[in-house]
Write a structure and sequence with these properties.
The chain is about 65% helix and about 5% strand. By secondary structure, the protein is mainly alpha-helical. It folds into 2 domains: about 5-50, no CATH class; about 55-105. The longest helix has about 35 residues, at about 10-45.
Length: about 110
Amino acid sequence: MSKEKFFALFSKEQGELLQKDIEKLVIIYLAKHRERLVADYIKRNFSKFMAEDRLLTSEEVMRILKISRQTFGRRVKSGALKPVNPEAKRHYRFKKSDIDNYIERKGGVSND
């Protein structure tokens, strides 16, 4: 039964009250079960979170490579680190697999 057909069985006021009650119950349910719901979502989508080609932010790359912002900027400018969106100028994104390959080529992370 569609939502419209269900609410057509009630007067407009009754339908509005019922809708508000339903919304409250949904909020209560989500509040009580949020941890389990989040854990289930992560379990179902784990490969998306941990995929080799997930995109990393500039901050994540700097943290992984243990480099400063200046060193990061030099490596992007020289082409050593290639963002997937070079036109962005600020909010670069990098493939995780590219960063892993960069680390392998360099023989580890920096100690800057």
